[in-house]
From TrEMBL, chain A:
Pfam families with a match to the protein in the record: ABC_tran
Organism this protein belongs to: Albidovulum denitrificans
InterPro entries reported in the protein's UniProt record: AAA+_ATPase (IPR003593), ABC_transporter-like_ATP-bd (IPR003439), ABC_transporter-like_CS (IPR017871), ABC_transpr_LolD-like (IPR015854), P-loop_NTPase (IPR027417)
Matching PROSITE patterns: ABC_TRANSPORTER_1, ABC_TRANSPORTER_2
Keywords assigned by UniProt, alphabetized: ATP-binding, Cell cycle, Cell division, Nucleotide-binding
Residue ranges of every copy of the ABC transporter domain listed in the record: 2-223
Name of the protein this chain belongs to: Cell division transport system ATP-binding protein
UniProt GO molecular function: ATP binding; ATP hydrolysis activity; transmembrane transporter activity
SMART domains on file: AAA
Cellular component, GO annotation: plasma membrane
Swiss-Prot/TrEMBL GO biological process terms: cell division
Keyword Hydrolase set for record: no
From TrEMBL, chain B:
InterPro entries documented for this protein: ABC3_permease_C (IPR003838), FtsX (IPR004513)
Keyword Transit peptide carried by entry: no
Leader sequence segment: none
Stored Pfam families: FtsX (PF02687)
The protein's name: Cell division transport system permease protein
Location within or outside the cell: Cell membrane
Lineage: Bacteria, Pseudomonadati, Pseudomonadota, Alphaproteobacteria, Rhodobacterales
Sequence intervals crossing the membrane: 27-52, 176-203, 233-251, 271-289
Native source organism of the sequence: Albidovulum denitrificans
Source domain of life: Bacteria
UniProt-listed GO biological process terms: cell division
Coiled-coil features, chain-numbered ranges: none
Keyword field: Cell cycle, Cell division, Cell membrane, Membrane, Transmembrane, Transmembrane helix
Protein backbone atom coordinates (compact mmCIF):
# COMPACT_ATOMS: atom_id res chain seq x y z
CA UNK A 1 0.00 0.00 0.00
CA UNK A 2 2.80 2.40 1.01
CA UNK A 3 6.43 1.55 0.42
CA UNK A 4 9.54 3.55 1.30
CA UNK A 5 12.80 2.63 -0.46
CA UNK A 6 15.98 4.27 0.81
CA UNK A 7 14.06 7.48 1.46
CA UNK A 8 15.87 10.55 2.72
CA UNK A 9 14.27 13.85 3.67
CA UNK A 10 15.44 16.96 5.45
CA UNK A 11 14.84 20.70 5.72
CA UNK A 12 18.23 22.23 4.99
CA UNK A 13 20.23 21.52 8.14
CA UNK A 14 20.98 17.90 7.30
CA UNK A 15 18.62 14.97 6.77
CA UNK A 16 15.83 14.40 9.27
CA UNK A 17 15.09 10.94 7.90
CA UNK A 18 17.83 9.00 6.18
CA UNK A 19 17.76 5.83 4.10
CA UNK A 20 14.34 4.72 5.35
CA UNK A 21 13.03 1.51 3.81
CA UNK A 22 9.79 -0.10 4.94
CA UNK A 23 6.41 -1.21 3.71
CA UNK A 24 2.95 -0.65 5.18
CA UNK A 25 0.94 -3.55 3.76
CA UNK A 26 -2.80 -3.30 3.15
CA UNK A 27 -4.86 -3.98 6.29
CA UNK A 28 -1.96 -3.35 8.67
CA UNK A 29 -2.15 -1.29 11.88
CA UNK A 30 0.96 0.68 12.83
CA UNK A 31 1.89 3.20 15.45
CA UNK A 32 4.78 5.58 14.82
CA UNK A 33 6.64 6.84 17.87
CA UNK A 34 9.72 8.86 18.56
CA UNK A 35 10.79 11.99 20.40
CA UNK A 36 9.44 15.41 19.40
CA UNK A 37 11.17 16.69 16.29
CA UNK A 38 12.32 13.21 15.28
CA UNK A 39 10.38 13.35 12.00
CA UNK A 40 7.02 11.67 12.72
CA UNK A 41 4.99 14.37 10.95
CA UNK A 42 7.52 14.43 8.12
CA UNK A 43 7.15 10.66 7.70
CA UNK A 44 3.35 10.99 7.53
CA UNK A 45 3.55 13.87 5.05
CA UNK A 46 5.75 11.73 2.82
CA UNK A 47 3.01 9.08 2.93
CA UNK A 48 0.42 11.35 1.29
CA UNK A 49 2.90 13.37 -0.78
CA UNK A 50 2.61 16.64 1.03
CA UNK A 51 6.39 16.31 1.01
CA UNK A 52 8.61 14.74 -1.62
CA UNK A 53 11.69 12.67 -0.74
CA UNK A 54 15.00 14.29 -1.61
CA UNK A 55 16.40 10.80 -2.26
CA UNK A 56 14.88 7.34 -2.64
CA UNK A 57 11.34 6.49 -3.69
CA UNK A 58 7.96 6.50 -2.01
CA UNK A 59 5.18 4.43 -3.55
CA UNK A 60 1.51 5.04 -2.76
CA UNK A 61 -0.92 2.35 -3.95
CA UNK A 62 1.84 1.04 -6.19
CA UNK A 63 2.66 4.38 -7.82
CA UNK A 64 5.97 6.18 -7.43
CA UNK A 65 5.04 9.62 -6.07
CA UNK A 66 7.73 11.37 -8.12
CA UNK A 67 6.02 10.20 -11.33
CA UNK A 68 2.43 10.90 -10.31
CA UNK A 69 0.48 13.65 -12.06
CA UNK A 70 -1.23 16.23 -9.86
CA UNK A 71 -4.61 14.67 -10.62
CA UNK A 72 -3.27 11.23 -9.71
CA UNK A 73 -2.08 12.64 -6.38
CA UNK A 74 -5.56 14.05 -5.74
CA UNK A 75 -7.16 10.69 -6.56
CA UNK A 76 -4.73 8.88 -4.24
CA UNK A 77 -5.48 11.33 -1.42
CA UNK A 78 -9.18 10.52 -1.73
CA UNK A 79 -8.27 7.02 -0.60
CA UNK A 80 -6.28 8.30 2.39
CA UNK A 81 -7.98 9.91 5.36
CA UNK A 82 -5.60 12.19 7.21
CA UNK A 83 -5.96 13.70 10.67
CA UNK A 84 -3.45 16.53 10.57
CA UNK A 85 -1.83 17.83 13.71
CA UNK A 86 -2.88 21.40 12.90
CA UNK A 87 -6.47 20.42 11.84
CA UNK A 88 -7.04 22.98 9.07
CA UNK A 89 -10.62 23.72 8.05
CA UNK A 90 -12.40 26.17 5.78
CA UNK A 91 -13.35 28.70 8.43
CA UNK A 92 -16.20 30.25 6.44
CA UNK A 93 -18.10 26.96 6.18
CA UNK A 94 -20.15 25.30 8.95
CA UNK A 95 -18.63 22.27 10.63
CA UNK A 96 -20.99 19.81 8.90
CA UNK A 97 -19.92 21.13 5.47
CA UNK A 98 -16.28 20.90 6.49
CA UNK A 99 -16.68 17.29 7.56
CA UNK A 100 -18.44 16.49 4.26
CA UNK A 101 -15.82 18.34 2.20
CA UNK A 102 -13.88 15.22 1.02
CA UNK A 103 -17.14 13.96 -0.52
CA UNK A 104 -17.93 17.39 -1.98
CA UNK A 105 -14.59 17.75 -3.78
CA UNK A 106 -15.03 14.23 -5.14
CA UNK A 107 -18.39 15.28 -6.61
CA UNK A 108 -20.43 13.15 -4.21
CA UNK A 109 -23.33 14.09 -1.94
CA UNK A 110 -23.10 13.44 1.78
CA UNK A 111 -25.98 11.39 3.13
CA UNK A 112 -27.51 13.74 5.75
CA UNK A 113 -28.37 10.89 8.09
CA UNK A 114 -24.90 9.37 7.92
CA UNK A 115 -23.33 12.79 8.41
CA UNK A 116 -25.50 13.39 11.44
CA UNK A 117 -24.60 9.98 12.83
CA UNK A 118 -20.89 10.58 12.29
CA UNK A 119 -21.02 13.97 14.03
CA UNK A 120 -22.90 12.39 16.91
CA UNK A 121 -20.34 9.63 17.11
CA UNK A 122 -17.49 12.13 17.57
CA UNK A 123 -19.60 14.09 20.04
CA UNK A 124 -20.20 17.11 17.81
CA UNK A 125 -23.88 16.78 16.94
CA UNK A 126 -24.63 20.08 18.67
CA UNK A 127 -21.97 21.87 16.60
CA UNK A 128 -23.08 21.01 13.06
CA UNK A 129 -23.72 24.67 12.16
CA UNK A 130 -20.80 26.07 14.18
CA UNK A 131 -17.84 27.67 12.39
CA UNK A 132 -14.47 25.97 13.00
CA UNK A 133 -12.87 29.02 14.73
CA UNK A 134 -15.45 28.72 17.51
CA UNK A 135 -14.42 25.12 18.33
CA UNK A 136 -11.93 24.06 21.00
CA UNK A 137 -8.76 22.14 20.16
CA UNK A 138 -10.34 18.82 21.12
CA UNK A 139 -13.47 19.54 19.09
CA UNK A 140 -11.38 20.43 16.07
CA UNK A 141 -9.44 17.19 16.43
CA UNK A 142 -12.66 15.17 16.57
CA UNK A 143 -14.00 17.04 13.55
CA UNK A 144 -10.76 16.29 11.70
CA UNK A 145 -11.19 12.62 12.52
CA UNK A 146 -14.77 12.65 11.23
CA UNK A 147 -13.60 14.35 8.02
CA UNK A 148 -10.81 11.79 7.60
CA UNK A 149 -13.14 8.80 7.75
CA UNK A 150 -16.27 10.11 6.00
CA UNK A 151 -15.20 8.66 2.65
CA UNK A 152 -14.41 5.25 4.21
CA UNK A 153 -10.83 5.57 2.95
CA UNK A 154 -8.53 2.63 2.33
CA UNK A 155 -5.98 4.09 4.70
CA UNK A 156 -6.08 6.44 7.70
CA UNK A 157 -3.06 8.47 8.76
CA UNK A 158 -3.35 10.33 12.06
CA UNK A 159 -0.78 12.72 13.49
CA UNK A 160 -1.10 12.88 17.30
CA UNK A 161 -4.87 12.39 17.06
CA UNK A 162 -5.38 12.13 20.82
CA UNK A 163 -3.21 15.10 21.75
CA UNK A 164 -6.19 17.24 22.73
CA UNK A 165 -8.63 14.49 23.68
CA UNK A 166 -9.63 13.10 27.05
CA UNK A 167 -9.21 9.42 27.75
CA UNK A 168 -12.80 8.55 26.96
CA UNK A 169 -12.69 10.25 23.58
CA UNK A 170 -9.28 8.69 22.88
CA UNK A 171 -10.81 5.27 23.48
CA UNK A 172 -13.69 6.03 21.13
CA UNK A 173 -11.25 7.17 18.47
CA UNK A 174 -9.23 4.01 18.94
CA UNK A 175 -12.36 1.87 18.74
CA UNK A 176 -13.25 3.50 15.40
CA UNK A 177 -9.76 2.97 14.00
CA UNK A 178 -9.73 -0.65 15.19
CA UNK A 179 -13.12 -1.20 13.52
CA UNK A 180 -11.85 0.36 10.30
CA UNK A 181 -8.80 -1.90 10.48
CA UNK A 182 -11.01 -4.97 10.93
CA UNK A 183 -12.80 -3.86 7.74
CA UNK A 184 -9.44 -4.12 5.96
CA UNK A 185 -8.33 -0.50 6.14
CA UNK A 186 -4.69 0.36 6.75
CA UNK A 187 -4.01 2.51 9.83
CA UNK A 188 -0.91 4.52 10.78
CA UNK A 189 -0.95 6.66 13.93
CA UNK A 190 1.90 8.92 15.03
CA UNK A 191 1.62 9.31 18.79
CA UNK A 192 3.39 9.74 22.09
CA UNK A 193 0.49 8.14 23.95
CA UNK A 194 1.85 4.81 25.26
CA UNK A 195 -1.44 3.96 26.96
CA UNK A 196 -3.19 4.25 23.62
CA UNK A 197 -0.63 1.93 22.03
CA UNK A 198 -0.98 -0.68 24.84
CA UNK A 199 -4.78 -0.57 24.63
CA UNK A 200 -4.67 -0.95 20.87
CA UNK A 201 -2.27 -3.89 21.05
CA UNK A 202 -4.76 -5.67 23.29
CA UNK A 203 -7.44 -5.33 20.61
CA UNK A 204 -5.64 -5.64 17.30
CA UNK A 205 -2.36 -6.87 15.84
CA UNK A 206 -0.75 -3.43 15.91
CA UNK A 207 2.94 -2.99 15.18
CA UNK A 208 5.05 -0.13 16.46
CA UNK A 209 7.54 1.83 14.39
CA UNK A 210 10.11 3.99 16.14
CA UNK A 211 12.16 6.81 14.66
CA UNK A 212 15.68 6.55 15.97
CA UNK A 213 18.95 7.83 14.52
CA UNK A 214 17.12 9.38 11.55
CA UNK A 215 15.68 6.08 10.45
CA UNK A 216 12.46 4.16 11.11
CA UNK A 217 12.75 0.83 12.87
CA UNK A 218 10.29 -1.76 14.07
CA UNK A 219 10.16 -1.48 17.87
CA UNK A 220 10.72 -4.68 19.85
CA UNK A 221 9.27 -5.91 23.10
CA UNK A 222 10.95 -3.11 25.05
CA UNK A 223 8.11 -0.75 24.23
CA UNK B 1 -28.58 13.24 -27.03
CA UNK B 2 -26.99 16.54 -26.09
CA UNK B 3 -23.43 16.10 -24.81
CA UNK B 4 -22.71 18.04 -21.59
CA UNK B 5 -20.05 20.74 -21.61
CA UNK B 6 -16.68 19.83 -20.09
CA UNK B 7 -16.68 20.83 -16.42
CA UNK B 8 -14.12 23.61 -16.76
CA UNK B 9 -16.45 25.48 -19.14
CA UNK B 10 -19.54 25.13 -16.96
CA UNK B 11 -19.64 28.65 -15.60
CA UNK B 12 -23.25 29.53 -15.30
CA UNK B 13 -25.03 26.37 -14.19
CA UNK B 14 -25.82 25.70 -10.56
CA UNK B 15 -22.68 24.58 -8.79
CA UNK B 16 -23.05 26.30 -5.47
CA UNK B 17 -20.96 23.68 -3.69
CA UNK B 18 -17.91 24.50 -5.79
CA UNK B 19 -18.48 28.24 -5.31
CA UNK B 20 -18.82 27.95 -1.55
CA UNK B 21 -15.36 26.52 -0.97
CA UNK B 22 -13.95 29.99 -1.75
CA UNK B 23 -14.68 32.48 1.03
CA UNK B 24 -16.65 35.58 0.09
CA UNK B 25 -14.16 38.31 -0.77
CA UNK B 26 -16.10 41.57 -0.25
CA UNK B 27 -14.12 44.50 -1.64
CA UNK B 28 -12.33 42.44 -4.30
CA UNK B 29 -15.71 41.41 -5.72
CA UNK B 30 -16.86 45.00 -6.06
CA UNK B 31 -13.54 46.13 -7.52
CA UNK B 32 -13.66 43.44 -10.20
CA UNK B 33 -17.24 44.37 -11.00
CA UNK B 34 -16.43 48.09 -11.17
CA UNK B 35 -13.29 47.58 -13.25
CA UNK B 36 -15.14 45.40 -15.75
CA UNK B 37 -17.94 47.96 -16.01
CA UNK B 38 -15.51 50.86 -16.56
CA UNK B 39 -13.48 48.95 -19.14
CA UNK B 40 -16.57 47.87 -21.04
CA UNK B 41 -17.83 51.47 -21.02
CA UNK B 42 -14.53 52.66 -22.54
CA UNK B 43 -14.48 49.76 -24.99
CA UNK B 44 -17.92 50.70 -26.34
CA UNK B 45 -16.73 54.26 -26.99
CA UNK B 46 -13.51 53.05 -28.61
CA UNK B 47 -15.60 50.75 -30.79
CA UNK B 48 -17.96 53.61 -31.68
CA UNK B 49 -14.98 55.78 -32.61
CA UNK B 50 -13.54 53.03 -34.75
CA UNK B 51 -16.85 52.34 -36.50
CA UNK B 52 -17.49 56.07 -37.09
CA UNK B 53 -14.04 56.70 -38.54
CA UNK B 54 -14.41 53.66 -40.76
CA UNK B 55 -17.70 55.02 -42.01
CA UNK B 56 -16.17 58.45 -42.53
CA UNK B 57 -13.25 57.00 -44.49
CA UNK B 58 -15.63 55.07 -46.73
CA UNK B 59 -17.83 58.10 -47.27
CA UNK B 60 -14.95 60.41 -48.13
CA UNK B 61 -13.45 57.81 -50.35
CA UNK B 62 -16.70 57.18 -52.22
CA UNK B 63 -17.73 60.83 -52.45
CA UNK B 64 -14.44 62.00 -53.85
CA UNK B 65 -13.64 58.92 -55.88
CA UNK B 66 -16.61 59.24 -58.24
CA UNK B 67 -16.26 62.93 -58.90
CA UNK B 68 -13.85 65.31 -60.63
CA UNK B 69 -13.79 69.01 -61.42
CA UNK B 70 -12.62 71.00 -64.43
CA UNK B 71 -11.63 74.57 -63.63
CA UNK B 72 -11.62 77.07 -66.52
CA UNK B 73 -9.69 80.33 -66.14
CA UNK B 74 -10.25 82.47 -69.21
CA UNK B 75 -10.99 86.08 -70.13
CA UNK B 76 -14.65 86.93 -69.62
CA UNK B 77 -15.41 87.13 -73.34
CA UNK B 78 -14.00 83.62 -73.96
CA UNK B 79 -15.43 81.93 -70.88
CA UNK B 80 -18.68 80.74 -72.46
CA UNK B 81 -16.91 79.36 -75.55
CA UNK B 82 -14.28 77.50 -73.54
CA UNK B 83 -16.92 76.13 -71.18
CA UNK B 84 -18.98 74.79 -74.05
CA UNK B 85 -15.87 73.30 -75.65
CA UNK B 86 -14.98 71.48 -72.42
CA UNK B 87 -18.56 70.20 -72.07
CA UNK B 88 -18.40 68.93 -75.67
CA UNK B 89 -15.16 67.09 -74.99
CA UNK B 90 -16.54 65.59 -71.78
CA UNK B 91 -19.71 64.43 -73.50
CA UNK B 92 -17.66 62.12 -75.71
CA UNK B 93 -15.12 61.04 -73.12
CA UNK B 94 -15.57 57.38 -72.08
CA UNK B 95 -16.12 57.01 -68.34
CA UNK B 96 -17.81 60.37 -67.85
CA UNK B 97 -21.42 59.88 -66.83
CA UNK B 98 -22.47 63.52 -66.47
CA UNK B 99 -20.75 66.88 -66.80
CA UNK B 100 -22.40 70.10 -65.76
CA UNK B 101 -21.23 73.72 -65.46
CA UNK B 102 -21.95 75.23 -62.04
CA UNK B 103 -24.20 78.26 -62.25
CA UNK B 104 -23.31 81.51 -60.43
CA UNK B 105 -25.61 80.67 -57.48
CA UNK B 106 -23.82 77.37 -56.87
CA UNK B 107 -20.44 79.06 -57.14
CA UNK B 108 -21.58 81.69 -54.65
CA UNK B 109 -22.76 78.93 -52.26
CA UNK B 110 -19.33 77.35 -52.45
CA UNK B 111 -17.56 80.61 -51.67
CA UNK B 112 -19.95 82.04 -49.09
CA UNK B 113 -18.38 80.20 -46.10
CA UNK B 114 -15.20 82.20 -46.74
CA UNK B 115 -16.43 85.49 -48.25
CA UNK B 116 -20.00 85.78 -46.96
CA UNK B 117 -23.32 85.72 -48.87
CA UNK B 118 -22.92 89.19 -50.43
CA UNK B 119 -20.02 88.32 -52.71
CA UNK B 120 -20.59 89.82 -56.20
CA UNK B 121 -19.64 86.69 -58.12
CA UNK B 122 -20.57 88.12 -61.49
CA UNK B 123 -18.18 91.08 -61.18
CA UNK B 124 -15.18 88.99 -60.06
CA UNK B 125 -12.84 86.98 -62.29
CA UNK B 126 -13.83 83.66 -60.68
CA UNK B 127 -13.04 80.50 -62.67
CA UNK B 128 -15.90 78.51 -64.13
CA UNK B 129 -16.25 75.08 -62.49
CA UNK B 130 -17.55 71.99 -64.25
CA UNK B 131 -18.68 69.10 -62.06
CA UNK B 132 -18.00 65.63 -63.49
CA UNK B 133 -19.61 62.43 -62.27
CA UNK B 134 -17.82 59.29 -63.38
CA UNK B 135 -19.19 55.92 -64.34
CA UNK B 136 -18.10 53.07 -62.02
CA UNK B 137 -15.31 52.28 -64.49
CA UNK B 138 -14.00 55.87 -64.34
CA UNK B 139 -12.23 57.83 -67.06
CA UNK B 140 -8.61 58.10 -68.15
CA UNK B 141 -7.60 61.19 -66.17
CA UNK B 142 -4.21 61.56 -67.82
CA UNK B 143 -5.64 61.27 -71.36
CA UNK B 144 -8.37 63.83 -70.59
CA UNK B 145 -5.84 66.17 -69.01
CA UNK B 146 -3.68 66.07 -72.19
CA UNK B 147 -6.65 66.64 -74.48
CA UNK B 148 -7.92 69.59 -72.44
CA UNK B 149 -4.50 71.24 -72.36
CA UNK B 150 -4.31 70.85 -76.14
CA UNK B 151 -7.81 72.07 -76.98
CA UNK B 152 -8.80 74.34 -74.09
CA UNK B 153 -5.62 75.89 -72.62
CA UNK B 154 -7.45 77.57 -69.73
CA UNK B 155 -8.97 74.29 -68.44
CA UNK B 156 -7.45 72.32 -65.57
CA UNK B 157 -8.67 68.87 -64.50
CA UNK B 158 -8.75 68.07 -60.78
CA UNK B 159 -9.62 64.42 -60.16
CA UNK B 160 -9.55 64.89 -56.30
CA UNK B 161 -6.71 62.41 -55.80
CA UNK B 162 -4.54 64.88 -53.90
CA UNK B 163 -7.47 65.70 -51.55
CA UNK B 164 -8.69 62.20 -51.14
CA UNK B 165 -5.48 60.45 -50.23
CA UNK B 166 -4.59 62.31 -46.98
CA UNK B 167 -8.24 62.38 -45.82
CA UNK B 168 -8.74 58.67 -46.32
CA UNK B 169 -5.33 57.97 -44.76
CA UNK B 170 -6.26 60.09 -41.71
CA UNK B 171 -9.61 58.35 -41.34
CA UNK B 172 -7.99 54.93 -41.71
CA UNK B 173 -5.44 55.86 -39.06
CA UNK B 174 -8.23 56.97 -36.71
CA UNK B 175 -9.95 53.64 -37.23
CA UNK B 176 -6.70 51.83 -36.48
CA UNK B 177 -6.25 53.91 -33.30
CA UNK B 178 -9.76 52.91 -32.22
CA UNK B 179 -8.94 49.24 -32.73
CA UNK B 180 -5.62 49.60 -30.87
CA UNK B 181 -7.54 51.27 -28.02
CA UNK B 182 -9.88 48.29 -27.93
CA UNK B 183 -6.94 45.87 -27.76
CA UNK B 184 -5.31 47.92 -24.99
CA UNK B 185 -8.55 48.01 -23.01
CA UNK B 186 -8.82 44.22 -23.36
CA UNK B 187 -5.22 43.75 -22.22
CA UNK B 188 -5.73 46.14 -19.26
CA UNK B 189 -8.86 44.25 -18.26
CA UNK B 190 -6.98 40.92 -18.43
CA UNK B 191 -4.19 42.39 -16.29
CA UNK B 192 -6.61 43.75 -13.69
CA UNK B 193 -8.62 40.53 -13.45
CA UNK B 194 -5.38 38.56 -13.17
CA UNK B 195 -4.18 40.81 -10.35
CA UNK B 196 -7.49 40.50 -8.52
CA UNK B 197 -7.50 36.72 -8.99
CA UNK B 198 -3.90 36.43 -7.80
CA UNK B 199 -4.71 38.52 -4.72
CA UNK B 200 -7.69 36.26 -3.98
CA UNK B 201 -5.59 33.13 -4.55
CA UNK B 202 -2.85 34.47 -2.31
CA UNK B 203 -5.32 35.38 0.45
CA UNK B 204 -6.82 31.89 0.25
CA UNK B 205 -3.59 29.90 0.32
CA UNK B 206 -4.71 27.92 3.35
CA UNK B 207 -8.06 27.09 1.74
CA UNK B 208 -6.29 25.85 -1.39
CA UNK B 209 -3.84 23.75 0.64
CA UNK B 210 -6.66 22.19 2.67
CA UNK B 211 -8.66 21.39 -0.46
CA UNK B 212 -5.66 19.77 -2.13
CA UNK B 213 -4.92 17.65 0.95
CA UNK B 214 -8.42 16.20 1.04
CA UNK B 215 -8.24 15.21 -2.62
CA UNK B 216 -9.43 18.21 -4.65
CA UNK B 217 -8.06 18.26 -8.18
CA UNK B 218 -6.50 21.45 -9.52
CA UNK B 219 -9.41 21.83 -11.92
CA UNK B 220 -11.91 21.82 -9.05
CA UNK B 221 -10.06 24.51 -7.10
CA UNK B 222 -9.40 26.62 -10.21
CA UNK B 223 -13.06 26.34 -11.25
CA UNK B 224 -14.24 27.80 -7.96
CA UNK B 225 -12.15 30.94 -8.56
CA UNK B 226 -12.74 31.07 -12.32
CA UNK B 227 -16.52 30.92 -11.95
CA UNK B 228 -16.50 33.72 -9.45
CA UNK B 229 -14.28 36.10 -11.43
CA UNK B 230 -15.84 35.28 -14.81
CA UNK B 231 -19.40 35.88 -13.64
CA UNK B 232 -18.38 39.10 -11.92
CA UNK B 233 -16.60 40.35 -15.04
CA UNK B 234 -19.54 39.41 -17.24
CA UNK B 235 -21.97 41.21 -14.95
CA UNK B 236 -19.80 44.34 -14.72
CA UNK B 237 -19.11 44.39 -18.46
CA UNK B 238 -22.81 43.98 -19.26
CA UNK B 239 -23.65 46.93 -17.01
CA UNK B 240 -20.87 49.11 -18.47
CA UNK B 241 -21.90 48.22 -22.03
CA UNK B 242 -25.55 49.00 -21.33
CA UNK B 243 -24.70 52.42 -19.88
CA UNK B 244 -22.34 53.26 -22.76
CA UNK B 245 -24.85 52.17 -25.41
CA UNK B 246 -27.52 54.27 -23.74
CA UNK B 247 -25.18 57.27 -23.64
CA UNK B 248 -24.36 56.87 -27.33
CA UNK B 249 -28.01 56.44 -28.26
CA UNK B 250 -28.85 59.66 -26.39
CA UNK B 251 -26.08 61.70 -28.02
CA UNK B 252 -27.61 64.76 -29.71
CA UNK B 253 -27.81 64.62 -33.49
CA UNK B 254 -26.68 67.81 -35.21
CA UNK B 255 -27.32 66.56 -38.72
CA UNK B 256 -24.86 67.65 -41.37
CA UNK B 257 -23.72 70.64 -39.34
CA UNK B 258 -22.31 68.41 -36.58
CA UNK B 259 -19.88 66.57 -38.79
CA UNK B 260 -17.69 63.86 -37.38
CA UNK B 261 -18.23 64.48 -33.63
CA UNK B 262 -21.96 63.85 -33.77
CA UNK B 263 -21.34 60.89 -36.07
CA UNK B 264 -19.73 58.86 -33.23
CA UNK B 265 -22.61 56.41 -32.98
CA UNK B 266 -23.74 53.07 -34.28
CA UNK B 267 -26.13 52.69 -37.19
CA UNK B 268 -28.39 49.73 -37.96
CA UNK B 269 -26.63 46.40 -37.54
CA UNK B 270 -23.61 48.19 -36.05
CA UNK B 271 -25.51 48.19 -32.73
CA UNK B 272 -24.79 44.47 -32.52
CA UNK B 273 -21.04 45.07 -32.24
CA UNK B 274 -21.03 46.43 -28.65
CA UNK B 275 -23.12 43.44 -27.56
CA UNK B 276 -20.05 41.26 -28.16
CA UNK B 277 -18.07 43.14 -25.49
CA UNK B 278 -19.51 41.42 -22.33
CA UNK B 279 -18.95 37.86 -23.64
CA UNK B 280 -15.47 38.81 -24.86
CA UNK B 281 -14.71 40.31 -21.42
CA UNK B 282 -15.93 37.08 -19.80
CA UNK B 283 -13.63 35.05 -22.07
CA UNK B 284 -10.70 37.32 -21.14
CA UNK B 285 -11.54 36.87 -17.42
CA UNK B 286 -11.92 33.10 -17.81
CA UNK B 287 -8.51 32.70 -19.47
CA UNK B 288 -6.77 35.17 -17.12
CA UNK B 289 -8.19 33.65 -13.92
CA UNK B 290 -7.68 30.06 -14.97
CA UNK B 291 -4.08 30.73 -15.96
CA UNK B 292 -3.41 32.53 -12.66
CA UNK B 293 -5.14 29.82 -10.62
CA UNK B 294 -3.32 26.92 -12.25
CA UNK B 295 0.01 28.73 -11.95
CA UNK B 296 -0.67 29.43 -8.28
CA UNK B 297 -1.77 25.83 -7.63
CA UNK B 298 1.52 24.50 -8.97
CA UNK B 299 3.19 25.93 -5.84
CA UNK B 300 1.04 23.66 -3.63
CA UNK B 301 2.02 19.97 -3.59
Amino acid sequence: MIAFRNVTHGYGDGPLLSDVSLTLPPGSFHFLTGPSGAGKSTFLKLCYRELMPIAGTVEIFGQDVSHMSRDAVAMARRKIGVVHQDCQFLDHLPLADNVALPLTVAGREANPEELKELLAWVGLSGHARARPPSLSGGERQRAALARAVITAPEMVLADEPTGNLDWDMSQRLLTLLVELNRMGKTILIATHDMNLIRTAKSQVAARVLRIRDRTVQHAGADL
Amino acid sequence: MKAPLPRKFRLFGRDTRTDRVVPPSGAAAWLTLLTAAAMAFLAVFALALSVATGRLADRWSEALANGATVRISAPADQMATQTQRVLDILSVTPGVETARALDPAETQALLSPWFGPDLPVASLPIPQLIDIQETPQGFDAEGLRLRLSAEVPGATLDDHQRWRRPLVAAADRMRMLGLISLALIGAAMAAMVTLAAMAALSANGQVIRTLRLIGARDGYVARAFVRRFTTRTLTGAAAGTAVAMTAIALMPSAGDAGGFLTDIAFQGAEWLWPLTIPPLAAIVAFVATRTAALRSLRTVL
